[in-house]
């Protein structure tokens, strides 16, 4: 079914469910619970650039936050099968994100965009960056020559990404964001007023005291925990890699319209 260029809330909710960005998502319950357990057990690969210490060492506490903020099944005995993202929570978070984008536009702030999930979210970030630039914001250009153990930190279509073997790389690490912030400081340039990102890029920015907003899947609990603690301002729950990146276009259109940037 075609969807309007700027959908209503009800039309967007229907679209999110039909494309499995929310609703019954592809990520299975057992994968979600495995990630919650690894985070609670201190596996830093699941901390997404954050310093959680021992504050979330009970996986049932993690599950409770994920049920509240993402919409996964809250029954700890439900261990296998389909899991969910509540599309209403997705749209609620998009509207909170829109308010922060509006603030950035009104203040002509410096904004940095980054993604660890270029196969799904690169164009969401690129389109948002273009809208903020048109509104007078400075889109931060990252320093050159940055790299981590995983690869090179580069900028493509206004969005910082990790490049490895001539390929844009999927990463959960916060190290690329750490290198960007260190590089800006070395060059005597101001840090961003706002980071719009996902995965460890968003987590590390928030941990560094920068206003950070982002997107996260139901098997990536760290950003939702960070939002609950106030380290990350907004975390939008969604499946971050569905069958076509074009499925995110109505979501982006709704976001920019809500921010007054359409």
UniProtKB/TrEMBL annotation:
It comes from the Bacteria. This is Phosphatase. It comes from Streptomyces chiangmaiensis.
